[in-house]
Amino acid sequence: MVYVDQSKPDLVERFTKKTFTAMIEGVRKAAIHEKLIDQDTFDKGIRALYRTTEADEVFCVSSIIQKHGGQYLLRGGQITPLAGDWTPERIILIKFNTM
């Protein structure tokens, strides 16, 4: 579970804004093009994610995933890249039945 509030300002900035929300924003065009979601609903969701970074707000990934029927399949430990220069610290694989 990832829990971030204003007591962890570095996580608010680096994880909530620059990683998780940025990742979701990165699929906007494709998700709308494939008609998985309409533009207004997508943008409303992004605004809600940014609201979790404001004072007295909380970002909790586990509750978001559970709310939408997600199931954790894998939370990786040590990673040994076999090719390229990508060196993630952790990999998490989540399954959604609707995808």
Describe the structure.
The chain is an alpha+beta fold. The protein has one domain. Helices cover 44% and strands 17% of the residues. The protein contains 4 helices and 4 strands; from the N terminus they run βαααβαββ. The strands form 2 sheets. The protein has a two-stranded antiparallel sheet with strand order 1-2. The chain has a two-stranded antiparallel ribbon with strand order 3-4. The model has no long low-confidence stretch (mean pLDDT 83).
End-to-end gap: 21 Å
Number of helices: 4
Uncertain segments are none
Rounded to an integer, what's the Rg over CA atoms? 15 Å
Order of helices and strands: EHHHEHEE
Instruction: Give the percentage of residues in beta strands.
Output: 15-25%
Count of domains: 1
Overall SS class: alpha+beta
For the report, how would you describe the main beta sheet? 2 strands, antiparallel
Can you list the strand order of the major beta sheet? 1-2
Helical amount among residues, as a percent range?
A: 40-55%
Mean pLDDT: 83
| DSSP strand tally | 4
Q: What's the shape?
A: globular
Quickly list its features:
single chain, 99 residues, alpha+beta, two-stranded antiparallel ribbon, 4 strands, 44% helix, 17% strand
Mind sketching the topology for me?
Layout: E1 3-5, H1 9-26, H2 28-33, H3 39-51, E2 58-60, H4 61-67, E3 70-75, E4 92-96
Antiparallel strand pairs: 1-2, 3-4
Give a summary of the structure in a few sentences.
With 99 residues, this protein is of the alpha+beta class. The protein is built from four helices and four strands; from the N terminus they run βαααβαββ.
